[in-house]
Write the structure tokens for this entry.
Amino acid sequence: MSAIKPVNQKAWWLVLPVVVCVAFSAVLPLMTVVNYSLQDIISPERRVFVGTEWFSAVMRDEELHGALLRQLGFSLAVLAVEIPLGIMLALSMPARGWQASAVLVVVALSLLIPWNVVGTIWQIFGRADIGLLGATLQKMGFDYSYTGNATHAWITVLTMDVWHWTPLVALLCYAGLRSIPDAYYQAARIDGASKFAVFRYIQLPKMRGVLMIAVLLRFMDSFMIYTEPFVLTGGGPGNATTFLSEYLTQKAVGQFDVGPAAAFSLIYFLIILLFCFILYNWMQRVGAAKQEGIEHE
């Protein structure tokens, strides 16, 4: 019988720095939040264990329900606009030459701008007195005011997010398109396939992986949006653009309700995980069904 080869466990030491970083940056803060969510912190020296009382109180909060509905509507609108727009932008971008490099740089410019700067840019851009967008709409006869009209504020925040993050979807789709071998396009030309047929049967199935990444990234990021609408509208007018992250900040920092804020942050975290899980499985099933349909055809 051959001798059993010993297993070298020294490789685990290479993973140790990552484990330590994750423990300090994720696990320990999460355990602290769990601890706060189960206590009523009266003062730094006085704490009372309340169990799941804060979770029950948060789930009965009508303002939280309104913020959740606004957040869901905003995130779904972001996906409905940015994913098709990103695909169209990627399809229109040149594939080779210096033009491709130049377009990639121009498209990626908005991604380099910090979130608070984006909010400031659109805050000035939308003003009716000095902003190009606001002044133009006023001259065209539209009574545009993102600070006084809830619908205008919501559309402005959505447009700002589309401007800022659609290039990310476009770059991901562009990378997926560039990974398709030329043999697929040659076969399509021989068969006389139309542009729509090429997109449906070649490009879209090959982009399924990057589209899944784009959908999950944009959903998670839009569901946690805070800086841009806070700088632009401050959550107003009223609470029209008060999304979940800003509502949580108001609880934790503005009112210093640490216990309810900790409970809400855990619920917030679980909501994001649940929706991402649902989106991931739905896209997997849709992709598998489309692949089976293509094979049958």
